[in-house]
Amino acid sequence: NQPNTIYEAIGPEKISELVEAFYQRVSKHADLIPIFPEDLTETARKQKQFLTQFFGGPALYIEEHGHPMLRARHLPFKITPARRDAWLACMEAALIETEIEEPYFTAIFERLTMTANHMMNTPEEEK
Ligand code: HEM
Asked: Does residue 118 sit within a domain?
């Protein structure tokens, strides 16, 4: 039986592990520390909800927070090309650490790269 969505293929446990591994790295990344809260518990909880629906699972994020409007929600933070690269590097390392396999690894990383590009709102020199 072929899975219909990334969510079905990898399951909620892996999504949770992925998000934990990701914010472990975010909390130590010099370019990202200045814009993230010190306590990432709530950020991680929301990201688990968001990625669950982003990967085709239940709409947990919308149920609690309404439409994601991700670009608007990121406007208070200066997201430069370097911060986009840092975010994606943390995510790539987290995908490797949690042993998410092909074809899901590439499918996930491509979708997140497109979304991360869309989140940029500040040129490097204005940081
Ligand atoms: C929230 C940074 C890309 C999804 C946040 C927050 C920051 C941030 C600083 C606020 C954390 C908090 O106050 O709790 C960044 C940077 C990115 C990036 C530097 C680099 C491009 C993305 C991408 C996604 C995403 C690609 C989705 C695939 C979210 C979600 C939240 C969030 C769901 C929580 C929104 C809420 O408060 O409800 N991000 N982000 N972000 N980000 Fe990002």
From this structure: yes
